[in-house]
Amino acid sequence: MKIYIHIYTQFLVAVLLLLSSCANHPDVPSSSKKVNSLPAIFPDYCNVIVPFNIAPLNFMLPADEYEACVARFTTPDGEQQTYGDGVKVQIPEEEWHVMLDAAKEKSIKVEVWGQKAGEWLSFTPFMIEVAKEPIDEYVSYRLIEPSYVAWNFMEIVQRNLTTFDETQIFNNELTCNDKKKGQCINCHSYQNYKTDNMLFHVRVSNGGTVLVNDNKVSKVNLKRDYTISAGVYPAWHPTAKLIAFSTNQTRQGFYTQNPNKIEVYDMASDLILYDIMTDSVSIVCNDSTLLEVYPTWSPDGKYLYYCKSVPFPVELRDKDITSTYQKVQYNLYRRSFDLETHGFGEEELVYDAASNDKSVSLPRISPDGCYLLFAQGQYGCFHIWHYDADIVCIPMNQYTGTGLTSETASPVDLKFLNSDGYPESYPSWSSNGHWMMLASRRDDGNYSRVYFAYFNNGKVGKAFLLPQEDPEMHTFLLKSYNRPEFMVEPVRITPNEFSKAFE
Amino acid sequence: MKYLHYIYTLLFGVSVLLFFGLAYPHHLHYQEQFQLFLFDSTYVWEIVRQPGGVADLLGRFCTQFFLFAWVGALIIALLLSLVQLLTLRLANYGWLYGLSFVPSFLLWLFLLDENALLGAVWTVLLTQLAFCGLLWLPDGWLRRILIFVAFFILFWIAFGGSHYYRIPNTFPTLFYAAWFSAMIIPLVMWLVVRGKKSENAQQQNSFLTSHLIPLTSYLLVVVVMGAFIWKNANFKAEKVMQYDFMASHQQWNRILETINKEKPNNQIGVTVQNLALAMRGQLVNHLFDYNQNGIAGLLPDVQSDATSPMPTAEAFYQLGMIYVAQRTVFEAQEAILDFQKSARCYKRLAQTNLIIGSYEVARKYLSALQKTLFYREWANETLPLLGNEEAIAKHPEYGRLRQFAYDKDFYFSDHVTPDMLESLFFSNTDNRLAFEYLKAYYMLTGDRDRYTKLLLHISNKQ
């Protein structure tokens, strides 16, 4: 009896191992009808440029139109492999990475067949170009329902981009000591893409800023009696133990008949500089009549860039902001920074968006300092809810000290990065400057997703969606990917270790 | 006579059934609306992998049937009867037979609370089943090992969790009392009866000791605990839940019948009463025949909880304030204290997104509802409407509500103003509900000028 149990257990383990390691390698349909169009796969990975270390680009044909899908991948060395299980194409990580290695600096040809009403259709093949530049191994984001005011469970997680592994950095249950009030966690931020110096905020119950300083965790209160709030949007100085923050009095309003759904606006906002070593907060700008927000450092740490609102026309100045918010527009400025004295130079206008009836937000300078990336909409600074918001990239060599405008600047062509008519926001650069990342609501207008695009010498590839093991996951996940940030290494501090900072 | 105790159990079960079916049905509906049970491996795994997950999953599985109150009542009756039978099986009670009902009564008492979750009952049941299984095995090394192993398994599948009560960090005293009584009472009885074994043996044949005294103890427990249950039942909340249920199922005539029997005097009741009156075109004429709560009785400010905004959201929806309704429902769902989702909210969010033309978002909600037992059919019927402008325009509900949309956009916060209602009405003067609400608003605020202007405007147009 014991022997039988033993044999049965071994058999079961073997079957499970076999099932978990096996991929479905179906035969290519023997006959099919040719269709002169690219397959309508989701996510759309047709003719994208990807890093050689990215996780498998699993995809699927629409389940309500097709019964089955088969894809044949051909690498430059002539090796071929087919995949397909139902309407999904899911490639084992190991096999995928072998293909990527074989196609580095070249392309993988992908042929797709779809079975519709019993008939096999053969689509126009597409290529996946494999760039030689890797993407940063990790990205972190907050997963949150795209809510209005209330919120439920939220977590900041990190995803290994070379695999499908996703682990939690922190969640809003661990240290929430008043469940009725709830807890909000946000604004995770890293110094130079590394995680030994990082932070995130905890709001409402048990609030504070969780700061990691050389891997030591502490909770700090950044509110001072001379600031309008605690630190909000952070920017780590690239080399010093300094963090620039905006301080904000943020409000929300709702539309009765507008797909933008929510308007997030500031009643007041300033900039501060936090010195970690001395736990001191100094004011960078606090013009009470204007709004300063979204600080970001140049990669050499010599300039602080930020957005600042344009003064209102006199006739609008005393009016309620709920009736004038659509007139609030931000331009991009910078100030030089002296690391020795912590002093800031005179303000310089870098990009005048308002002259073209636009507004900028969330600037980021490329790691080589050569390009400026930001989100732009018609007004305001919270563009992830603005359907007209797009990403703009401007070569910094065009800036000669006089504020650029839409007429004087020649932006990089981002037609393959931006979507047509959906909100795009939160752009950023990978540490090597060859990959752009953004949050976009292009899939349904409501749930933001993370997209990447290749960048090389001012040329930008087609944006592609963060790959998932199950391509349908993006359809069913009712969470938004908020504030995606590149990291070159994982956060190694566990959620429970972060929690100890609250004791 | 040997199986007499089954009749007592049956009587108990029938009492539970009648109580939840007749006196407490809307508490069951309330429970059902705060979860979304999906027949989906990821959903199941996410629950099962937590300590206590199996009991939680079984509880959620059963709760989905609470959509039909009598089925829910039957499930609770069966579970509580089973708990009693297992309590009885674990020991010989003799004269104190009535004590075998104590754990079930305590669970019943626990379930009177609308935040008590059915997973707690399954925890007690799974624990008892494990004990019965272990006692069934012959004494020996195998049983000792299994007892040791069972402790860990039981911890994982049933008792290690914390999802017994909807409000986190709340100690569900009654649940723990029920669980301990289900363990302690049989143990104590086993020790007591074992000590008196010889004495009992002599009295076995006595009718008094074998039937009459156990019956007396049964009746004593039933009367005492039954009275306790009746006293602790929250019939006031049941009434409020009834109004919410009737509004969510758009039972306007039933609402009118109910308010004519007893005029509601709570926030939700008044909101639902006014909505039903307006839906039947009687709001203005009968406004002051019923209790009012000022303008807060029409469209109250949305609070940050999961329950009170729902009837208001229904009014927003019926008025054609679809974006406002969507926001209200979304926020209500986010306020569910144990982070669950709501099938009722998903359904309404699918509808609002369909009406405003956010088809891909509607598809997400409908795709999830396709994985449910009782909302699948509706989701399958609704999916073909996505993107089908002609079919939506012809749809009696969605087509009508689309026509009521605001023709100009503006900004609003948490408080509904007469300007919002005016703008809504003048966007489409066929919107009779908006007309009723607007007039009622002026009547409740005593704004005669605007009321007169509105009537003049209408008469001039005619």
Outline the low-pLDDT stretches of chain B: none
Total number of beta strands of chain A: 33
Largest sheet geometry of chain A: 7 strands, mixed
Please work out how many helical segments of chain B DSSP would assign: 25
The value of Rg of chain B in angstroms is: 27 Å
Q: Can you give the mean pLDDT of chain A?
A: 92
Radius of gyration of chain A from CA coordinates: 25 Å
User: How is the biggest beta sheet of chain B arranged?
Assistant: none
Task: Specify the structural class of chain B.
Answer: mainly alpha
Structural class of chain A: mainly beta
User: What characteristic shape of chain B results from the CA principal axes?
Assistant: elongated
* Tally of alpha and pi helices of chain A: 5
What's the helical proportion of residues of chain A? under 10%
Question: What sequence of helices (H) and strands (E) makes up the elements of chain B?
Answer: HHHHHHHHHHHHHHHHHHHHHHEHHH
Q: Classify the beta-strand content of chain A into a percent band.
A: 35-45%
Explain what this protein looks like in three dimensions:
Chain A has 503 residues and is mostly beta strands. Helix content of chain A is 9%, strand content 42%. By secondary structure, chain B is mostly helical. In chain B, helix 2 packs across helix 5 (69-89). The termini of chain B are far apart. Chain A binds chain B through residues 145, 147-153, 173, 179-180, 253-259, 261, 263, 322-323, 325, 443-447, 475-476, 478, and chain B through 167-169, 304, 321, 323-324, 327, 330-331, 333-337, 339, 341, 356, 358, 360-361, 363-365, 367-368, 405-413, 420, 423.
Secondary structure: elements and pairs:
The complex is a heterodimer of chains A (503) and B (462).
Chain A: H1 2-21, E1 33-34, E2 48-51, E3 59-60, E4 68-74, E5 80-83, E6 88-89, H2 93-102, E7 107-116, E8 119-122, E9 126-131, E10 138-144, E11 155-160, E12 166-171, E13 183-191, E14 194-204, E15 208-213, E16 216-220, E17 234-236, E18 242-255, E19 262-275, E20 280-285, E21 292-297, E22 303-309, H3 321-324, E23 330-338, E24 343-351, E25 359-365, E26 371-377, E27 390-395, E28 424-429, E29 435-440, E30 449-456, E31 459-460, E32 464-465, H4 473-476, E33 480-487, H5 495-499
Parallel strand pairs in A: 1-8, 2-9
Antiparallel strand pairs in A: 3-6, 4-5, 4-7, 7-8, 7-9, 10-11, 10-33, 11-12, 13-14, 14-15, 15-16, 17-18, 18-19, 19-20, 21-22, 22-23, 23-24, 25-26, 26-27, 28-29, 29-30, 30-31, 30-32
Chain B: H1 4-23, H2 25-33, H3 41-48, H4 53-63, H5 69-89, H6 102-111, H7 119-136, H8 141-159, H9 173-195, H10 197-203, H11 207-232, H12 235-248, H13 252-261, H14 267-279, H15 283-286, H16 309-319, H17 322-334, H18 343-356, H19 359-369, H20 376-382, H21 389-394, H22 398-403, E1 411-412, H23 418-427, H24 432-445, H25 448-461
Helix pairs in contact in B: 1-5, 2-5, 2-12, 3-4, 4-7, 4-8, 5-6, 5-7, 5-9, 6-9, 6-11, 7-8, 7-9, 12-14, 13-14, 14-16, 16-17, 17-18, 18-19, 23-24, 24-25
